[in-house]
Design brief:
- This protein has 143 residues and is α+β, with helices and mostly antiparallel strands.
- It has a domain of 76 residues.
- The chain contains three helices and five strands; from the N terminus they run αββαβββα.
- The longest helix has 35 residues.
- The radius of gyration is 21 Å and the shape is elongated.
Length: 143
Amino acid sequence: MYAWLAVALLAVLACVIVMVGLFVAAWRRTLAQVEASGLRYRMRCETCGYEFDLSPREFARSKFRRSRSTTRTRVKGVALVNEPHYHYVAKRFDCPACGERTWCENLNANEARDVVNPIALRNFGAALAVLVVIGFVLRVVLA
């Protein structure tokens, strides 16, 4: 009886490891494809007003973020889609001009969203589809 429980727990652990691996791979693929698209994040230092560009990798490094947005619902095909419209997005970076670690406003947040969303949906959707297939296979094998 305990052997069957150990096998089931190991199968769950293996699924969690595969899930994390798939989503990390999807994140890396997304970041690489966004960089290949030529997207540059236009930033402005809120301390000195200096404007500078960041690559998607540099932009993704900063964890602190603040934003103000409204959600717009529109019809896309046969579905209603809620899309945020950003009025203000800022992240903490080291300003190249004044050298301070300060809030820098993202000046092209909506344009960046329009580039990143289709790429991210494609990559993370594929990872989710693989997980669903694995789940069905496990269900058949363990049932």
